[in-house]
UniProtKB/TrEMBL annotation, chains A, B:
Identification of the protein by name: Lrp/AsnC family transcriptional regulator
SMART domains xrefs: HTH_ASNC (SM00344)
Any Pfam family matching the protein: AsnC_trans_reg
Entry keywords, A to Z: DNA-binding, Transcription, Transcription regulation
SUPFAM superfamilies assigned: Dimeric alpha+beta barrel, Winged helix' DNA-binding domain
HTH asnC-type domain span: 7-68
Length: 158, 158
DNA sequence: CCGATAATGAGCAATCTGCTCAATCACGGA
DNA sequence: TCCGTGATTGAGCAGATTGCTCATTATCGG
């Protein structure tokens, strides 16, 4: 059972409104939620201060940049060299995100590539990083559920 | 070698500007890139039409909602039931994203949870979905490289 | 019952947006 | 070389939004 976060029901409604209508102005959100503009403004400011809302970010589709392929590369690394490996991974432009995970595999690396050869090259480059012992590449074939946060927000309203 | 996407160098500079300064106005972007406001406006409109730029979205931190834990759950499913499984996963609020991947495991499921017990419960719920044969949960311990797109944009400038 | 905090309504200057229009520029085909 | 299409530019304008301040009112806990 998730403990209450620092957001209350009103905050959740604000966030839900923003999640569903990203271009909505502060005024529109205030109207929709049923609070005054000033309240909406101060709450939004607080949410940003808290880090709950990362102002707005512009999500850019890698496919539009010429990288239609996405893959998860898991890697086993020499634990002692974890930070060095992370730094080396950060130098690979096609690496979008790296997470340290529990279990037999140490790293979850999200990469994009222009085509299969490109992906093979990138996987090779990662494997060549000192400290990387083994890698395993899983190509993303299909988005079955697109990234979303609204179900969590809806639940916070109850 | 990635083939050229539908974005040219100017588009890339616009996107880079937006990625680095998400709150920048159209005017500010135009100035920074060195193009007129009209050009910036029409290019931005085109990028949105193309789907390269998803207008703006508000990224909300699950941790602020009371879900500090993130995990990757991989699952093997009965291939024939893939769509049904996906639909069932979409009904789980804590499931943020589901991708069909190549390899011995069929699904990559990103979930968030309030605590370890919560995660255990969610994993159980997923395993109980008809068609899900096996699951494996990997807890995200640390963000080593935060999601980013700027390196790809910088490369597109050359 | 009182006090601190939050919410509200009002107002204001500055800015941004969406849109239109006409002129100029760049580039490839005839 | 000339022409035409599409992109770019500068200008302008009405309307909306933003960030901010102020005073007043509500709300909730001690």
């Amino acid at each position: 059972m998730p403990h209450d976060g620092p957001v209350d029901a009103v905050d959740a409604r604000i966030l839900l409104e923003l999640a569903e209508h990203p271009r909505a102005t502060t005024l529109a959100v205030a109207d929709r939620v049923g609070i005054s503009r000033n309240t909406a403004q101060s709450r939004l400011a607080r949410l940003e201060r808290n880090g709950a809302l990362e102002s707005f970010e512009h999500r850019i589709a890698p496919a539009a940049l010429g990288y239609p392929l996405t893959a998860f590369i898991t890697a086993q690394v020499t634990q002692r060299l974890l930070d060095e490996v992370a730094a080396a991974l950060a130098d690979v432009p096609e690496v979008l995100q790296v997470q340290g995970i529990s279990g037999p595999v140490d790293l979850m690396i999200q990469v994009v590539a222009g085509d299969a050869d490109d992906l093979y090259r990138i996987a090779g480059r990662i494997l060549a990083i000192p400290g990387v012992e083994r890698t395993n590449t899983a190509l993303v074939m299909r988005q079955l559920v697109d990234y979303r946060i609204t179900p969590l927000l809806r639940r916070a309203l109850r």
